[in-house]
Amino acid sequence: SLDAMTAIHLNWQAGAPMPGVNIPADKVRAFDLQPEFITATLVGLKSRAGVFNLQRDINANEDEALLAVLPAVALNQLWRLLDIVTRTLQALSALVLVLSLCGLITALLASLEQRQRELAILRAVGARPLDLLFLLVLEGALLTAGGACAGYGLLGLASALAAPVLQNQWGIVWPIARLTADELQLMALVAVAGPLTALWPAWRASQRALADGLTPRL
Fold first, then answer.
1. 136 and 107 Cβ atoms separated by less than 8 Å
2. Where residue 129 falls among pLDDT bands split at 50, 70, 90?
3. d(C-alpha 189, C-alpha 183), whole Å
């Protein structure tokens, strides 16, 4: 009944239950359970053939501000819209990843000019070009892994801070960020892409002559 539905949602606000608020069953009768308005109702038909005719008649009725919606069709449209949004966000994420890898290359190339003498000293004390290559690739891998972990940590912190606010104000349940199988695969892809991206700056550094870094610049 409508009174029962109102009683069930006494401790709800903005479409979600208020945390810490629990109304005992014996106290429910003290409230006015008469609903002030009805926003939606579910109508079932004996004949499925008349569904579209009834929907058209309700939507074409100009005397009442009513809207007839088929739940299955509406949900299908919603999933299609969400699929478009998801694909758009995935494309933006891929673009951000590419830009981040380009930034990694730029940072490594810029650091090579400042660390040229350091790398030359390593060569002078016996480090092989392959050792320098491995060292710089390892640096790229650590930067990539650190960035991925920091990003996931910030996401978890933002989720933990925003979840109560979203639920209390707008009734949106925002789950705390947890890595799924697909996200683990993406993080593994990023972890592999970082060292591969660092290969070119590392190769350039390993091919420089020893005298390039030890010759004093006037």
1. no
2. confident
3. 10
